[in-house]
Design brief:
CATH superfamily: 2,3-Dihydroxybiphenyl 1,2-Dioxygenase, domain 1
Distance between the termini: 15 Å
Shape: globular
Number of helices: 2
Structural class: alpha+beta
Number of domains: 1
Order of helices and strands: EHEEEEEEHEEE
Number of strands: 10
Radius of gyration: 15 Å
CATH class: Alpha Beta
CATH topology: 2,3-Dihydroxybiphenyl 1,2-Dioxygenase, domain 1
Largest sheet: 4 strands, mixed
Helix content: 10-25%
């Protein structure tokens, strides 16, 4: 597998201070540059940017996947197992409700993964995964 460089993703939020609380306090992201219209966050080494945009913070479409309604538009990070467990515990302690409870998909099969979904206060869906074997991340 090639060395991974940090990705960058920008997304809309309805309130920057609400976003700061969720991403910094709940998820543990540090902050970077910011203005009165956006804030950079460090999400496990990746740059995500919350942009103030009330018009774009609407309910997202969902598709059925393995018996769950998975938001079509979502982003997240594939974590090491210990990081995934720590984040799961941190979210539970925060009182934030999971959109899809932490669980194991493809148990005992290639592609086995832990996954959990949650929504930020602006309705952006996030998925965090941890594969039993990273060699299966792109396995067909």
């Amino acid at each position: 597998m090639r060395s991974i460089r940090p990705f960058h993703v920008a997304f809309p939020v309805r309130d920057l201070e609400e976003a700061r609380t969720f991403y910094a306090q709940t998820l543990g992201c540090s902050t970077g540059r910011e203005s009165n219209l956006w804030i950079d966050f460090n999400l496990f080494g990746h740059q995500i940017v919350a942009h103030l945009s009330l018009e774009e913070t609407k309910e997202v479409q969902k598709n059925p996947v393995d018996g769950n309604a998975v938001p079509v538009r979502h982003f997240g990070v594939i974590l090491e197992s210990s990081e995934w467990e720590e984040l799961k515990d941190r979210i539970r302690k925060s009182g934030i409700q999971f959109l899809i409870e932490p669980r194991i998909r493809f148990d005992g099969k290639p592609g086995e993964q832990r996954t959990m979904f949650l929504m930020d206060p602006s309705g952006n869906a996030l998925e965090f995964k941890s594969f039993a074997n990273d060699n299966y991340i792109f396995q067909k």
